[in-house]
Automatic annotation (TrEMBL):
Keywords associated with the record: Glycosyltransferase, Transferase
Family note: Belongs to the UDP-glycosyltransferase family.
GO molecular function: anthocyanidin 3-O-glucosyltransferase activity; quercetin 3-O-glucosyltransferase activity; quercetin 7-O-glucosyltransferase activity
Pathway: Pigment biosynthesis; anthocyanin biosynthesis
Name of the protein in question: Glycosyltransferase
Catalytic reactions on record: an anthocyanidin + UDP-alpha-D-glucose + H(+) = an anthocyanidin 3-O-beta-D-glucoside + UDP
Pfam families named among the record's database cross-references: UDPGT
Entries under InterPro entries matching the protein: UDP_glucos_trans, UDP_glycos_trans_CS
Keyword Electron transport tagged: no
Lineage: Eukaryota, Viridiplantae, Streptophyta, Embryophyta, Tracheophyta
UniProt superkingdom: Eukaryota
This enzyme's EC code(s): 2.4.1.-
Amino acid sequence: MASKNVKQEIHVLLVAFSSQGHMNPMLRLGKYLLTKGLHVTLATTEIARHRMLKSSAISPTSNSVSGVQLLFFSDGLSLEYDRKANLDYYMECVGKFGSINLSNLIKEHYPVNGQKRLSYIVNNPFVPWVVDVANEHGVPCALLWIQPCSVHAIYYRFYNKLNPFPTLIDPEMSVQLPGLPLLLTEDLPSFVLPSNPFGSIPKLFSDVFQNMKKYTRILGNSFYELEKDAINSMSDLCPFLPIGPLVPTSILGEEEEEEGQDTGVEMWKAENSCIEWLNKQEPSSVIYVSFGSLVVLAAKQMQSIATALRNARRPFIWVVKQPDTPRPDGSGQLPTGFLEETKDQGLVLSWSPQTKVLANVALGCFITHCGWNSVLETIVAGFPVIAYPQWTDQPTIAKLIVDVFGKGLRLRENKDGVVSEQEIEHCIREVMDGPRSEQLKSNAMAFKREAAVAVASGGSSAWNIQLFVDEIIAS
């Protein structure tokens, strides 16, 4: 193919929001592009560099990750500013100052009359203004969608008013869309619900989905065999090119990077000592619990999970990332005495090396908030999940896990808005050794095999990446 004989240096600039879950899929896309002979740089804001240095993900002299060059630009705020305190203001600043500073960065590193040729820009949906910067510089721009194609289809139809969705008059209406199962209110992304306050993220998505024609390509961190009905349903509206799963190579069964790590960055220090403990456990025996970096559970919910894990009498790893600011109501805190009571049963970590944990044969199931990166990793690793979605795309992902992929169960809250210890215990028993466990495990293994085929030579995602590379070279 054309990419085998690349003579002129062709440069691709990836631009990502400064979040670990947004940067890592971009870096993994960058790795694929590097193997095709392209030159790849990832640009993000200075706060990401600050966090990576703090976690030792990069050294002060680092300017690359696994061959992908790194560039940083200012979002207009100081490093000390609390970006979580006022998300709307933060997103406004990123759009206003980030676009100016990114444009200046492009002028500096890719001068029009210089030797470097900037052929393509790829951004993700949380920095939508990048496509306008690309157009100003006369560079084609593709969008890397980092959630399921199914969610992309829902947003596209919602923001372009192609189908009816719940309203204040009919807040409980169900939604039937092509290529998707019947969606109840509890299955929809929170941003399309009438109860959701209009803020920076819904406005951002509205802008993205009403301006899709600005992009030359919509790439997706998924694979055809996983979401073929949803992908096919978008073919006449907004073609979606799945190039995933963009996950760590070690989970895919490939050799690790030369540096001993997968392509990606960590924003927090992981407790790698857990792997030694994990290696001593029986195969498919360990319950892994993690709700990502943003979720802070109420004290009652923490108590329910703690009691369920203790009563399950199975080994566990529970990742409990402390909130940046301690909560007076006890949110996010372990119940008193839990560590002492379970010291011989499991581990509680402040942050885990999730790539290594999920690749370990001791894992039996994953209780997750249904972040798409984590779910894709479980799909590639080949074990069931217990879904506890919180907001944004997570309810829809939980629906996919249960009713489309058939590889997990969903926790249900009681009338007080808490998932009881009995509900958690029931789901653990059902997934680990209940009547449905063999079918769940079988479905999980089937998708594991299909994911491996998709990214291998001749697979659907491998072909799509090559198609994109050929378009870059021809641009």
